[in-house]
Amino acid sequence: MTAPAARRRLSPRAKAALGIFARYATIVGLVAMIVAFSLVSPRAFPTLNNFTNVLNQASLTMIIAAGLTLAVIVGELDLSIGFAASLHGILVTGLIVSNQLPIPVAVAIVLVAGAVIGLINGLIVTKIKVNSVIATLGVGTILTGLAFAYSAGVPIVSGVPEDFLQLSLGRWLFGIPNNILIMVVVLGGLWTLVERTAIGQEIQAVGGNPSAARLAGIDTDRIKILGFVISGVCAALTGILLASRLGSGTASAADGYLLTAFAAVFLGSATLRDGEFHVLGTLIGALIIAFGFNGLNIFGAPTFSQYVLQGAILIVAVGLSSLGRSISES
């Protein structure tokens, strides 16, 4: 029996139940995980200090994943983000240490560089018509080479000023870690852009049905390029904050953010909506991953278990997203 035929045989009540499961399973899972970890480790896990630490550690994942969400909403994939963030971390550190540029100037230059990389990705995909997976993977590989060329494969550690470290490690407002504050601003801004503006409606229209959006007069290429540019800027910001947190620029420091960001984005698409990508869902997906890793660390689980959890989460996320999309189309 084919999948469409199987769906047609489902009763309305069964479809409704599946729809509720697809929409809320991730939230229920997050709450259940927090409750379970709290019961098993009541002194270490359910504390304000630990929750703040989880948010602080997950803030960079949330920022880079939120940018990726915009690229995915318009129907494309950006596989360059992790490699780009690594390059931007080296670049901002080098500009500050080697070129003696003021921190705000160095940060601004790197953010512009992130936008340029996103623009290049967007132009390759929309104008040259290269598949986004191939295009961004190729660009990401080039960026890795540039990162090693710029740093000669040696981390930039010596001479990093304290003010730059405080960008990520400081607590400038109400004792809240700066990374959390920056994350809230970025995610709040992107959520507002997508959900509350006219251009956000165009972004969703292009992702939902590019042909219909084009017939409606929307410049689909421009919108897709915008998605890549936002993804590039968020990758640049992540690289800057990671270099500030580590106190150094390293050629592969942010490479691991790629898989984590995709897991968060696809988990988010299975949250509250029927397989649709959205910024709030990405936030929830990132929280699930962050609390899962935090619980494993508290219980002293081996490092390999984090990779197993992350891979399993990605598979489940895609499955739930597909389920939600199938239900909405049936």
TrEMBL record:
GO cellular component, one term: plasma membrane
Membrane topology note: Multi-pass membrane protein
InterPro entries xrefs: ABC_transp_permease
Keywords in alphabetical order: Cell inner membrane, Cell membrane, Membrane, Transmembrane, Transmembrane helix, Transport
Family annotation (CDD domains): TM_PBP1_transp_AraH_like
Compartments it resides in: Cell membrane
Record-level Gene Ontology MF annotations: transmembrane transporter activity
Residue intervals passing through the bilayer: 21-42, 54-74, 81-97, 103-125, 132-152, 172-194, 225-244, 256-272, 279-301, 307-324
Record keyword Translocase present: no
Quaternary context: The complex is composed of two ATP-binding proteins (LsrA), two transmembrane proteins (LsrC and LsrD) and a solute-binding protein (LsrB).
Purpose: Part of the ABC transporter complex LsrABCD involved in autoinducer 2 (AI-2) import. Probably responsible for the translocation of the substrate across the membrane.
Listed name of the protein: Autoinducer 2 import system permease protein LsrD
Organism of provenance: Siculibacillus lacustris
